Amino acid sequence: MKKLIIFILLGVGLFVSCNAELEERVEVLEKTTVIFLKSSISDLYSECQELKAAIVALEKTASQDDVNDLKKALSKLEAEITKLNSLLETMMDGYYTSDEIDALLKQMQTEISRLKESVAELESRIENASGTVPQMYNPPVNFQKADLKVLDIGNSYTQDAQTYLPQIIQASGIGTDFSLYRAFRPNGSFKTWVDCWNDADNDAYNVAFCAGTQINGISGNGYNNDGTLFRKALQTVKWDIILIHQVSTYSNDYSLWEGHGAGGYLQELIRLIRITNPQATIGYLMTHSYRGSYWANSEGSSLLRWKNIAEATKQLKLEYDIDFIIPYGTAVQNLRASSLNDSYEFSEDGTHMGAGLGDYVAGCCYFESLLAPRYGVSVLGNAFRITNLSESVGGRRNVTDETALVAQKAAILATLDMWTVSNPDNYDM
């Protein structure tokens, strides 16, 4: 094929009109098409880097064969992009005729379209390997499931809700053909549990038995940057219900739950659960509001913050089909609406519930939501009491026959309507 050397044409003065046309073509090419092609190739390289990160993230969740196949496909894709980039650089050396440049441009544009399709196909393969689905199917709770297994993944608010739960269960007289465990991490958020799974969280945690029948081999202490125990708990037990909840700092603002900020990673946590336990019902523990006077309460009111927590929970229900909710935060707010309330609002430190009635109402709501439907035994009339606390410590309140009844009613009202605060003093049960 005939080649035109621009500098020779200019030197001998031949074919001036052809040379002018070629110069004009090269100028236009440099200013428009080449810029576009370079940008497209740069975008393809960037997308490959994102795909590489996504494949690395799959190494702890997908099969090794799937990961290796994806790595090979990505390597082939990167090689094809590099070849295309080399062709562009060669074309810019200036040794092609006008017709050849036209042909190369068409070839490169076709190749870029094909590579974009290859990127999209690889993205789809990664998504399928990760277990994500466009619309999450969340199995309904089967309260009558034999040997019901429940895991609560949370933080100190999980401890608040379960502090007296074993004693409440024992006093109820129900059976033990269930297993209730919790994964506890101080200030545990959606993000920190995802980090824990990936050996990237900087705090210790534990997996502990709460009530029912113990399961061998999953209890223990986990350490910073080591998610082995957490992965084992999710991978070796077929849980029937897995509860999640957000750290209190972000529990009142759903807009922070998605994405990769400190309050984000909701989708990633749900994906991990869905991959390891596709049969499980994912539920949510709707936590309580800070005390109104607590320094971190940006709303300045426990009621207003509770309303925001409730709205965030509603959004979660809508977006992820999470229908099973333990609304102990509403039970606490119901108790705060009663005549028993004072300036401490049943919280010793402003954030956690206080010993005695505060933790008790949370445990009552946990029982009424999870175990009452299974055994047909309500928390109303439960005989467990706490009468040895020093109430000189603000936020602490003994659980007597009188106060227990108010708390039990507050818990039941929360399970009947978690979106409304109800004063238990106004209800006879």
Topology, pairings included?
Blueprint lengths: L5 H7 L3 H42 L6 H28 L6 H33 L17 E7 L1 H7 L2 H8 L5 E7 L5 H8 L7 E8 L7 E3 L5 H9 L4 E4 L21 H11 L4 E5 L16 H19 L4 E2 L1 H9 L20 H14 L1 H4 L25 H16 L13
Parallel strand pairs: 1-2, 1-5, 5-6, 6-7
Antiparallel strand pairs: 2-3, 3-4
Can you give me a brief rundown of this structure?
The protein is an alpha/beta fold and 429 residues long.
Q: How would you sum up this structure, described in words?
A:
- By secondary structure, the chain is α/β, with parallel strands linked by helices.
- It folds into two domains: about 5-130, Up-down Bundle (Four Helix Bundle (Hemerythrin (Met), subunit A)); about 150-425, Rossmann fold.
- It has 14 helices and seven strands.
- Strands 4-3-2-1-5-6-7 form a seven-stranded mixed beta sheet, sandwiched between helices.
- The longest helix has about 40 residues, at about 15-55.
- It is elongated and about 95 Å long.
- The protein starts with 5 loop residues before the first helix and ends in a 13-residue tail after the last helix.
**What is the domain tally?**
2
How are helices and strands ordered from N to C?
Answer: HHHHEHHEHEEHEHEHEHHHH
DSSP strand content = 5-15%
Helix content: 40-55%
* Major sheet summary line: 7 strands, mixed
Distance between the termini: 96 Å
Query: Which class best fits the helix and strand makeup?
Result: alpha/beta
CATH topology of the largest domain: Rossmann fold
CATH superfamily of the largest domain: SGNH hydrolase
CATH class value of the largest domain: Alpha Beta
- The total strand number stands at 7
Strand order of the largest sheet: 4-3-2-1-5-6-7
Rg calculated over all Cα atoms: 31 Å
The residue-averaged pLDDT reads 88
Instruction: Return residue spans where pLDDT drops below 50 for at least 5 consecutive residues.
Output: 1-19
Number of helices: 14
**Multimerization state:** single chain
Overall 3D form:
elongated
CATH architecture of the largest domain: 3-Layer(aba) Sandwich
